């Protein structure tokens, strides 16, 4: 079956990579960028860069306008309504660190923070270190055999001692959607704060943070076809009110003296220093582009590609899928073959996939693995990309076995 992406031509890097003999199947790590974004960055830098929220001059006003327009576009993308604010950070990782430091004052020794067994280090280590600083208990929700957070275990592990729940919407290793709405409901019943790691989920389909019922939702622009160096933290008004200022510097200040200062509320109070101006403006252009993409058609295209990917992997002797991937990516291991050796041979044949622990060492170890190869898809991939991958895989396996 031949599947052609109607959006491929919008991403010039795909052709450039092809000319270099590269097949890009690592979009879960970072996505290629649409021409609309490249044009927006060229326009911004070509017509006058400026800092935001401080200068009186025209370039400053224009940059501030474009920057704030993006805040509205992100709010629309997540359907925040008037429920909260969008804070720009330097990535999903910085957003989690902002949360872990900004909420630290709420915790008392013995309180519990609940995460799951499949979390990326970005949504594990900030909480783990907070737990160590404040003598808290980090509770780990177990997974079902399919790689989904086990809701029946969650009903007892989320309890009156739970002060905060932080879980991933879509696993970056297993490709499984997580039952985040159900988990949010459980946590809310105990008045716990809730955080969703949307780093992978936000890329696939539209998500409504009001319907999800979370206090905070985090993602990185670069996985959503936007620039790197930009993260998004959505926070509900009541939840943001708990957040203490964490990073201090320019433009987050209301009044400053030598001995004391007062600070702005969200969002600007949490955007200390010069924010990633070009990146945020680029994210705005990316969202304009994505708003013109038929999301239903894109999801169907990705689903068909994903089926081809999983079916092709299942067909091959000795190849074992890790978990039961549902969307966009599949991780696998091969009996008797080290993932690093296989990755090396795939790389030599121009196949750009990710190998190793995928920044989720505890998950990979708990599955009894030293690593896995992950193939990840985006709306610009074609079935030809998969054909090239499978040809390279077959050749590599022939050499290794
Ligand atoms: C599920 C998940 N959460 C968080 C992150 C961290 O994102 P970033 O490195 O952009 O901060 C990633 C990145 O791979 C991820 O896949």
Your description of this structure?
- There is one protein chain.
- With 401 residues, the chain is of the alpha/beta class.
- The protein has 2 domains: 125 residues, Alpha-Beta Complex (Aspartate Aminotransferase, domain 1), CATH 3.90.1150; 254 residues, 3-Layer(aba) Sandwich (Aspartate Aminotransferase, domain 2), CATH 3.40.640.10.
- Helix content is 39%, strand content 17%.
- It has 14 helices and 15 strands.
- The strands form 4 sheets. A 7-stranded mixed sheet has the order 2-8-7-6-5-3-4, sandwiched between helices. A 4-stranded antiparallel sheet has the order 11-12-15-14, covered by helices on one side. A two-stranded parallel sheet has the order 1-13.
- Strand 6, helix 8 and strand 7 form a beta-alpha-beta unit.
- Helix 2 packs antiparallel against helix 10.
- The longest helix has 21 residues.
- The radius of gyration is 22 Å and the shape is globular.
- The model has no long low-confidence stretch (mean pLDDT 97).
- It binds pyridoxal-5'-phosphate.
- Pyridoxal-5'-phosphate (PLP) binds next to helix 4.
Keywords:
seven-stranded mixed beta sheet; 401 residues; alpha/beta; four-stranded antiparallel beta sheet
Average pLDDT rating: 97
Radius of gyration: 22 Å
Please give the share of residues in helix: 25-40%
CATH architecture of the largest domain: 3-Layer(aba) Sandwich
Mass-distribution shape: globular
Count of individual beta strands: 15
Summing up helix and strand content along with how strands pair, one would put the structural category as alpha/beta
> Which homologous superfamily in CATH is the superfamily of the largest domain?
Type I PLP-dependent aspartate aminotransferase-like (Major domain)
What is the succession of H and E elements? HEHHEHEHEHEHEHEEHEEHHEEHEEHEH
What ligand species are in this complex? pyridoxal-5'-phosphate
Distance between the termini: 29 Å
CATH topology of the largest domain: Aspartate Aminotransferase, domain 2
Largest sheet: 7 strands, mixed
The first-level CATH class name of the largest domain: Alpha Beta
- The parts where pLDDT drops under 50 for at least 5 residues are none
Number of helices: 14
